[in-house]
Amino acid sequence: MGRYRLRRLLGEGALGLVYEALGEDGATVAVKVLRPERAGDAAARARFVREARLAARIASRHVVPVLEVGESFLVLPFYPRGSLAQRLRERGKLGLDQTVRLAAELGRGLDVLHEHGILHRDVKPSNVLLADDGTAALADFGLARASDSTRITHDGQLVGTPHYLAPELIEGAEATRASDLYALGCLLYECVAGEPPFTGSRPAEIGFAHLMEAPPDPRERRPELSGEVALALVAALEKDPQARPTSGTALARMLHVARSASPA
Known about the structure:
- There is one protein chain.
- The protein is of the alpha+beta class.
- The chain folds into 2 domains: about 5-75, Phosphorylase Kinase, domain 1 (2-Layer Sandwich), CATH 3.30.200; about 85-260, Transferase(Phosphotransferase), domain 1 (Orthogonal Bundle), CATH 1.10.510.10.
- The chain is built from 8 helices and 9 strands.
- The strands form 3 sheets. Strands 1-2-3-5-4 form a 5-stranded antiparallel beta sheet. It has a two-stranded antiparallel ribbon with strand order 6-9. It has a two-stranded antiparallel ribbon with strand order 7-8.
- Strand 7 (about 130) and strand 8 (about 135-140) form a beta hairpin.
- Helix 3 (about 95-115) runs antiparallel to helix 8.
- The longest helix has 20 residues, at about 95-115.
- The chain is globular.
């Protein structure tokens, strides 16, 4: 693929395939290519190009950068520890201190995106990559949308992943910073509790829970948590977007303060 030799498949999504690859200089990178069956899809190609353009505007260690753009591929840094989803699958839920650190890193990454007028719209564990030192970065801008960009999805089309969708999105409202924060809240809850706050066998069942049910107290799954930590973990899961923390950093700070006030 251009100057890169693809070595093994790392992951895949609806839009692209991501491979570990070797550059001519011997450096290991990740190469994301448009799925062959989507090559004739004008909307898919537009999203793919937009992902590169959006990422090129960001300079943060907590947002995965695009190193190079080819005709039908993107070159990204290689994250040797893989995704947060892999980490949770292989080793189970995180410790509270790990989750507090993750909240600070992802909260900052999300704030940087928002400061640039970009909504991620698909914050979830498989879209968080872990560097060699464990630092987390937000990845996959396939569903991201800048405030000044052309709308690619059709009116009424729901985008995102059911377990992390804010109630207002399920009702058909536009994505906002608050809906990204809701998704981050679901992710952090999952890190501590071992599964997302709302689960079910069908997307409609999960969507109904987001709309109508209060999130389960995380102490039901982690009894050792303090009440302060439990409240911080569900702070971003308010049904009313106006009641959620105002930024990723604010959410992370709430969790940090609650952790500091808790027994070790």
